[in-house]
Amino acid sequence: MSASQHDDGAEHNARSSRVAAAILIAFAVILAIGTSQIEYAFSSDPLGPRAFPYLLAVLLAFCGLWYFLNPGAASPWPQMAVLRSALVLIAVTAISVGLMDKIGFLTAAFFMSACAAYLFGAAPLMAIAIGAAQAVFWFVLFKYALGTYLPSGSWLFPG
Amino acid sequence: MSLDYLWTGFAVALTPGNLLFALAGCFLGTLIGALPAIGPINGIALMLPIAYTMKLPPESCMILLAAIYYGAEYGGRISSILINVPGDAGAVMTAVDGYPLARQGRGAEALTMSALSSFVGGILAVIGLTFFAPLLGLFAVKFGPAEYVALMVFAFATLASMVGAEPVKTIIGCLIGLLLTTIGLDPTSGAYRFTFDQPEMHDGLEFIIIVIGLFSISEILLMLEHKITGTLKPIPIGKGFPSWSDIKACWWPTIRSSVSGFIIGVLPGTGASVASAVAYTTEKRLLDKGTFGKGDMRGLAAPEAANNAAAGGAFVPMLTLGVPGSGTTAVMLGALLLYNITPGPQLFTEKPEIAGGLIASMYIGNIMLLIMNIPMVRIFVKMLQVPSTWLIPTILLLSILGVYTAYSSVMSVLLMIGIGVFGWALRKLGFDMAPIILGFVLGKVLETNLRNALALSGGEISILFQSTISNMFWAMAVLIVLIPWWLSRRAK
Q1: What percent of chain B has pLDDT over 90?
Q2: Beta-carbon separation of B171 and A126 below 8 A
Q3: CA B88, CA B208: separation in Å to the nearest integer?
Q4: Cβ contacts (< 8 Å) between B393 and chain A: which residues?
Q5: Taking Cα atoms as reference points, which of B323, B264, B7 lies closest to residue B121?
Q6: Are A112 and B396 in contact (CB under 8 A)?
Q7: Is there a contact between B412 and A96 (Cβ–Cβ < 8 Å)?
Q8: Which pLDDT tens digit goes with each residue over A124-143?
Q9: pLDDT of residue B311 exceeding 90
Q10: From CA B479, how far away is CA B469, in angstroms rounded?
Q11: Confidence of residue A113 (pLDDT cuts 50, 70, 90)
C-alpha cells in the first residue's frame, strides 16, 4: 500500500516468501488443532463456535499453498545493522512499557523517546534533551489537559 | 413529511451560543482527531461528561458532540495521510492513496482534497438525512441476519479486487483479520476461543491495539530501516491547492461514493469502514489504470466522501429508531438518554429543537469545517518537515498513550508492540495492512449474523437467499468478481 514498502527496489526474493508460506500452512494446521480443542457445552446456533475457525483454517491452508507455489515479490531481507537497531528500539520500548507502573510514565517515556531519537540520528545529548522534552510535554497534556490516568510510578512514589 | 422541525432547528442552531459550541466542537474535534489513535469515539467519550457537568441544555450538548464527531472525522485524516497512522477504521482506506501522495510532496493538496470531498460527502448525507430519515429508518429495520451476511460477502468480494498484482496476499490478509476476531469469549456458546487461559484475552483483541500496532509501530520500524540504509528522504511540502483537473477528476467518484456511503452508513453496525472500503474498491474497479494505491487523488477522494457520508447516515437509525449505526453514534445515543430523551419517529414532532437543531448544526458544522480547515492545511503539513529525531518519538509516545489511555493496561501496550513487529514482517513480505483491518472489522458482523441466521432457520442454509435485499447483494457480489475476469478474457 505505502510507497515505502516497494521503493527499496523490491527484489524478487522467492525464498523468504516460501518460508512465510510454509509458516502459514503450519499455522493453519495448528489453528485447526486448536479449534478442535475449543470446549463448549451447548450452543444456541447450529454452527457452534468451531465452524468459523475451521473454515478459516481451510481457506488459510489453501492460500498458503497457492502462495508457496507462486511466491511473488518481497523486499530483500533487512541488513544486520537494521535488525540490530530495530531490536534495540523494540527491547527498550517493551521494557520501559513493562515497567511503566513501577517507574512511572515520565521515566518510561523518557527512555523510549530518547532511544528512538538516538537511533534516528540525534547526538547523545540531543537525544536526552528530546527524550525529556517529549516525556514532559505529553505527560502534562494527557494528565492535566485531557485528564487521563497515567502512572506516577510505585518505585518513585511509594504508597 | 413537513420540514417544520428543520426551521425550528435552524433557529436553535443559529443562536450565538450554539454557533460557538459548533465552532468549538469542530476545532477541538479536529485537534483530538489529529492525534493518532484517538478517534472520534474517544473524543466524544472524553467530552460527554464535561458537557454534562457544564449543565448544557440537551440541544447544545448534541450540537457540541456532533461537531466534535465530524471535526474528529476530519482530523483523523491528517495523521492517516501524513504519517500513515489512521485514527479510526474509517480512515484506513484514506491512507492507501493519501500516504503515497504525502510522500510525493503532495500532502497539502491531499489534505485540501480530503477536506473538499469530506465536505461534499458530509453535506449530501445531511441532505439525505433531512429528507429521507424516516423512510430510511424503515429500510434499515428490514435488515435481518441473512441480509447482513449477504452484505458482508459483497463487501469481501469488492475487497478481493483491492490489490491487483497479488490477490492471494489480500485474501490472506483478510483471513488473518477474520481470525483475530475469533479470539475471546464466543457470546453464542460461552466458549473461550484461543484465549490461552489468559483473562486479558477473554474480551478479545481491541481494534485500537491492532490498528496502532499494524500501522504505527510497523511504520516506525520501516522508517528506521530507511534511515539506516540512507533512503529516508526529506519530503517537499508542495503547493496547497489541488489543480483544477484533479478536482474535476474527483467529482464523480466523490458523488458516487457519497451516495453509496450514505446508504451503507444507514445500516446499523456497518458504517464508515465498510462504506470507505466499498467506495474505494468500486472506484478502483471503474477507473484504475495502475495508479490507485500509488498516490491517486481519486483513490483519496472516494473513501473520504464515503466515510463522511456514512457518518451522517449513521444518524438516521439513531434518530429515527434509537438504534445506533456506529460506535460513535452509540455514545451520542447514550448522551440523549442521559437527558431522558428517547429517540424515535416522534422525536421530530415532539422535540423539534433537538432533532432539527442537530441536523441544522450539521449543515453549519460542515461549512465551518471546510472554511476552518483549508487555511489550516498549511500548518498541518508542516508536520512533515519536523525532523525524524523529533517526529518518531512523538509517534511512538502517542501510539503508546493511545492504547494505554483506552485500556489502562500495560499488557495491551505490549500486545500492540508485538502486533507491530508482526506487521513489519508482513509489510516486508509485500502484504498490505488494510485488508487485515477490514477483515477484523467485518469478521464479527459476518460470523455473528451467519450464526444468528442459521439459528433462526434451524440450520437451513436457504434462509440466506430468501429476501430480495440479500439476493441483490449476492448477485452484486458474483458480478463484481466475474465482470473483471470476463473483461480480461475478452481483452486477450
Answers
A1: 14
A2: no
A3: 8
A4: 112-114, 116-117, 130-131, 134
A5: B264
A6: yes
A7: no
A8: 999 999 999 999 999 998 88
A9: no
A10: 15
A11: very high
C-alpha B469/C-alpha B151 separation (Å) is: 9
Cell of B357: 437543531
**Consecutive H or E run containing B185:** strand B184-185
Residue B6's pLDDT is 83
At A76, the amino acid letter reads: P
| C-alpha to C-alpha distance for B130 and B125, rounded to whole angstroms | 9
Please determine, for the modelled complex, whether the ipTM score is greater than 0.90.
no
pLDDT at residue B353, rounded to an integer: 81
Lowest mean pLDDT among A103-112, B250-259, B343-352: B343-352
Give the CB-side neighbour count of residue B356, counting CA atoms within 13 A: 20
Q: What pLDDT is recorded for position B325? A: 63
Question: Looking at A83-92, B20-29, B475-484, which range is the least confident one?
Answer: B475-484
DSSP state of A77: P
Cα dihedral B276→B281→B287→B293 (10° resolution): 80
Higher pLDDT residue, B384 or B258?
B258
Measure CB to CB from residue A117 to each of B166, B389, B417 and give the nearest one: B389
* Cβ partners under 8 Å of residue A134, min gap 6: A109, A110, A113, B390, B393, B394, B397
Cβ–Cβ < 8 Å for B264, B270 = yes
Yes or no, beta carbons of A116 and B454 under 8 Å apart = no
State whether residue B45 sits within 8 Å of chain A by CB: no
Residue B322: which region, alpha, beta or left (left: phi > 0; alpha: psi -120 to 50)? Answer: left
Residue A65 forms contact with B (CB below 8 Å): no
Name the residue among B172, B396, B417 with its Cβ closest to that of A116.
B396
In the block, residue with C-alpha cell 457544564: B54
- Euclidean distance between CA atoms A110 and A97, whole angstroms: 11
Q: Which of A38, A70, A113 sits opposite B393 (nearest CB)?
A: A113
Cβ neighbours around B412 below 10 Å, total: 18
Q: What are the phi and psi torsion angles at A158 (to 5°)?
A: -65, 150
Residue B257: all three cell numbers together: 461514493
CA torsion, points B348, B352, B353, B354, in degrees to nearest 10? -10
CB atoms within 10 A of CB B49: 12
C-alpha cell recorded at residue A2: 505505502
pLDDT of residue B56: 81
Q: The C-alpha cell of A157 is what?
A: 512514589
* CA–CA gap between residue B321 and residue B341 (Å, rounded): 13
